[in-house]
Sequence to fold (115 residues):
Amino acid sequence: MQKVMASVANRRGEVMLALANDVMMCSNRKTCWWNGGNVLETFLKSVSRLKISNTVVITLDDETERFCKQFGGVASLRMELPVPTAQQGSRGANLISTLKYGLLRQALPQVGRRR
Fold:
C-alpha cells in the first residue's frame, strides 16, 4: 500500500484515499436505498474532471477493482480487509463503514511513531 500511495502522492505527500465495494456501483433500484446509480463512477468522473491526481481507491472485491482499472486515470489497490463481527449480516455499505479505521492504521503506520 505504501508503494502505491507514494507513487500518487502530490508534492506535499498528500493522498486522497477512497474505500469502495461493489455496492457503490449498484444499478438495481430495488436493492440500493439511494435509488441505484453508480456512485463510484460519479466519484471517479469528478476526480478526473477536477484533475485530482493523488487519489487511490482501495477496492474490496474483484468487480470493483475491474471497474476502476477499466475506468483508468485513478490508481486502485485491491485489498482483503476483514469485516468486523458487529457488521456481519449488515448491508453492503455498512459492512465497510468501520473498515476505514483499520485502513487508516495500515496506510499511516508512521504517524504513531512520530509522537
